Amino acid sequence: MDVLFVCATWHGLAKLRLHTDATLELLDEITVSLGETLRHFVKTTCSKFNTRELPREAAARSRQAASAQKGKKRKSVGTPAAATAHMATSTAAATTRRPKTLNLNTYKFHSLGDVPATIRRYGTTDSYSTELAKHRTVKARYQRTNRKEYRRQIARIERREARLRRIHMRTSPLARADDETVRQANPEIHHVIGRTENLPLHIGAFVTDHTGDPAVFAFIPKLKRHLLPRIKAMLSRSIPEPTTDSAAALTSDLWQKVHLKHDRIYKHNLFRVNYTTYDVRRGEDIIHVNTSHRNIMVLNPLFTPDNGEHPYWYARVLGIYHANVFYLGEGNTDYNPQRVEFLWVRWFSCMDGVPSGWKHRRLDRLKFPFLNDEDAFGFLDPSDVVRGCHVIPRFFTGKARDDIRGLSKLANDVSDYGSYYINR
What we know:
Elements: H1 2-14, H2 21-45, H3 55-71, H4 80-95, H5 107-111, H6 115-122, H7 133-142, H8 150-171, H9 179-184, E1 191-192, E2 200-202, H10 203-209, H11 219-235, H12 247-251, E3 258-260, E4 264-268, E5 270-276, E6 282-288, E7 295-299, E8 312-327, E9 338-347, E10 349-350, E11 364-367, E12 377-380, E13 385-388, E14 391-393, E15 420-422
Antiparallel strand pairs: 1-5, 2-4, 3-8, 4-8, 5-6, 7-8, 7-13, 8-9, 9-12, 10-11, 11-15, 14-15
Helix pairs in contact: 1-2, 3-4
């Protein structure tokens, strides 16, 4: 596990498209650590195992040996019988699987130490990689020339393709798209949830249909407590605090003044969230509740560098909804329904006391709390989502439940694992 963690860390740093002095210093340290880890792995781990080459490698070597024998002049072999015996002996020796160990005395391992200095001198690795699409595009254009004055012909091909792209942009559906399509294509918007109301859910019928499911326990009070500070902030034209719930809303009965138009919430399948990547570009994650791409991360408001809290909270999205909400509380004069978007999530909890992080060379671990835990399920403002995240089951621990039905159909807890890794 140490080798895997260090190799993945080194690879991630070496392939960065944007480096600073801090990242290069970190790459220097990881490079030294990589060499020490690999040498320790070869000395202590590899020496305890009798590893041999793969059957296909032995078969390939056997074919090469047989082909070489056929091409040789058998001067030292007098009779055909002796020649046949000699070839059989050589073939048998070639098909034997030879011992094979990890060899660090190769150029590939030797050149790893030069990567930080190369990046400092020539720039990031994507600046001079042969994998760039531009290189392949130029070679493809060259094939379309007659090999005479090809530079002028390649320039004309490039100009023709540029004009065709401009024509395509003017005539594409996006050029005459509606506001919804334009909104989805705008990277400046934090998130996008559809505006359609084609999938309505009557909130009372939804809770009744799933009576006994732990996921819908106190569903309506939790939802209205979540909506209360948000609808009050919208009516007062202020900005809500970036927390999941207001402490005042949790302790008061004002949530009963929150009402949903026609007692309905409207379901959506997709949630698009835009974020800024480390190399100052805009990225997009698409959360789909019916796929494995439904895990998200939010900032932990309790985190400080000194308190030992994890900097993020993690959750699995069970539903993407919006509702038309109005507030009948004291002092309110605006009774027009306000569209409020929210996510119904199942929270992960970080496993405290488990060695993890850079110091221990292990990924952070998560697990689901018990279904009857008061904080196992909740609601979240989509604006608080940082981005999607990659949660990996720890297959070694096996499933959390032995039965085939589970306790919650909505949470699909029958597929839960004992614990998970959060990928960096």
